[in-house]
Design a protein that fits this description.
It contains eight helices and ten strands. About 35% of the residues lie in helices and about 20% in strands. The longest helix has 13 residues, at about 155-165. The protein is globular. The strands form two sheets. Strands 3-2-1-4-6-8-9-10 form an eight-stranded mixed beta sheet, with helices on both faces. It is an alpha/beta fold. Bound molecules: NADP nicotinamide-adenine-dinucleotide phosphate. NADP nicotinamide-adenine-dinucleotide phosphate binds near residues 8, 9, 10, 90 and 128.
């Protein structure tokens, strides 16, 4: 698939590597521009395209939001109609504490800036180092480290589940955006949970 990743740090950079290795085509963007991302292209080859964020969003059938939630205030509004938007964010402040969203979920604000997209919450509940190291495509999905996902569009969740499996993890559908985001969010039972899919399933059923 064509995947546009906005944010090239711990999460975006590692996802770019994993998806290119899984034979997807990735456009990667950060705030400093494509020249600062050339080392990714040097390492990963012709399926990694450094781009400006606006171009990576046009490029991607799937767009991954992989920058800090607090930076949304400074972002333009992008039209992502027809695209799947994966929200990896947790609402941390720069000092490591997190914003009180007063019952709302972080994706509400993501959708304001990635307007019209089919939003799926994923990759927010795994530490970047485990994302980089624990994927294993040689064992059955039920045995793999779980990655939870939530959303309101069943077809979009199928696509994201299969992307999660492509990079060696076990995809666990936690339900609607509202319900699932809470289970896998910073206060949720699945946040940072180091469990195989078959055991994590028991926590939400
Ligand atoms: N770190 C983790 O283990 C972890 C785990 C789960 C979820 N998350 C979530 O994943 C997201 C990214 O975290 P991270 O740890 O990967 O952060 P990070 O290493 O600090 O990377 C942030 C990236 O966002 C880019 N960025 C900032 N403003 C941008 C803009 N206006 N347009 C395009 N790109 C922009 C930065 O580019 P420049 O460097 O050029 O400014 C940088 O590449 C956060 O929402 C975090 O809550 C993180």
């Amino acid at each position: 698939m064509k995947i546009g990743i906005i944010g090239a740090g711990y999460i975006g950079g590692n996802l770019a590597k994993l998806f290119v290795k899984a034979r997807h085509e990735v456009a990667l963007a950060n705030s400093r521009g494509p020249a600062s991302l050339q080392h990714f292209a040097d390492e990963l080859g012709e399926n990694l395209h450094p781009m400006e964020a606006k171009d990576a969003i046009v490029f991607g059938e799937v767009v991954i939001v992989a920058f800090h939630w607090r930076n949304l205030d400074h972002m333009p509004i992008y039209d992502t109609t027809g695209k799947i938007v994966i929200d990896t964010t947790n609402p941390y402040k720069a000092d490591g504490t997190f914003f009180d969203l007063q019952g709302d979920i972080p994706s509400t604000k993501v959708l304001e800036h990635f307007h019209g997209g089919k939003l799926v919450k994923a990759f927010n509940a795994i530490w970047y180092k485990h994302l980089a190291e624990l994927g294993n495509t040689s064992i059955p999905p039920e045995e793999r480290r779980v990655i939870p996902l939530a959303g309101d569009d069943a077809d979009a969740k199928k696509v994201v589940s299969s992307l999660i499996e492509d990079i060696g993890f076990g995809a666990l559908d936690t339900g609607s955006l509202q319900t699932g985001s809470r289970l896998q969010g910073v206060d949720g039972i699945l946040f940072g949970k180091e469990l195989p899919l078959k055991e994590a399933r028991g926590l939400v059923e």
